[in-house]
Specification:
This protein is an all-alpha fold. It folds into 2 domains: about 110 residues, no CATH class; about 90 residues, no CATH class. Helix content is about 75%, strand content about 0%. Helix 2 packs parallel to helix 5, helix 4 runs antiparallel to helix 5 and helix 7 packs antiparallel against helix 8. The protein is globular and about 55 Å long.
């Protein structure tokens, strides 16, 4: 299962969560303003930032973007077929850089600190009748259950490989959806039992 925590303590851990999230928003928006050659430099800068925090951080960051390879493959095939490989490379560089930056923020920031920032940002929604804890809780559930969902998908694929010589494909999709719905129902029951949000 993926872990969202950094294997070592870094200087970035001491930065305020709001500053890191603000920097992430600005950096991600900046990636869309860069030309193709600038995206290569930006990706190199993101890798350099990881390396500046330590080799263990860089290795962990690279492991966390490994699940992106199917998207990279689809991008490569599509843009080679349409004769625009440069455009595909720019999209891939933008995607990897943005995901690595987001991963760096989540693995160097405590979840409680991130939730506090989201609650502060969602405070104006209270005037419309939506408690600020609702978006914060939704964010926490996504952060917590994405690795669980990936782990469940891995277990299903492993079970398929144990019973069939063929590669797991679309037949595991329905059980995965049913597992996700079952998990969501259990979480909803637990929240209702604790008085909701």
């Amino acid at each position: 299962m993926l872990t969202l925590t950094c294997p070592v303590e870094t200087r970035l851990h001491r930065w305020p969560a709001g500053a890191k999230l603000g920097g992430l928003v600005l950096a991600t928006a900046g990636l869309f303003a860069l030309p193709g050659w600038g995206l290569g430099l930006a990706l190199a800068a993101v890798l350099g930032l990881h390396l500046a925090l330590g080799r263990a951080v860089l290795a962990h960051g690279l492991r966390m973007v490994r699940p992106l390879w199917p998207f990279g493959l689809v991008l490569a095939v599509w843009h080679l077929a349409t004769g625009t490989p440069g455009q595909g490379a720019a999209i891939a560089a933008r995607l990897v850089a943005a995901v690595m930056l987001a991963n760096l923020v989540t693995m160097t920031t405590r979840l409680t600190d991130l939730l506090a920032v989201i609650e502060r940002l969602a405070a104006p929604l209270a005037r419309l009748g939506l408690p600020p804890r609702v978006p914060a809780l939704a964010f926490a559930l996504v952060i917590r259950f994405v690795p669980v969902f990936i782990g469940r998908a891995g277990q299903l694929a492993e079970a398929w490989r144990a019973r069939s010589p063929r590669r797991p494909g679309w037949p595991v999709l329905l059980p995965l959806v049913l597992i996700a719905l079952d998990d969501a129902e259990h979480v909803a029951e637990a929240l209702r039992a604790r008085g909701g949000v």
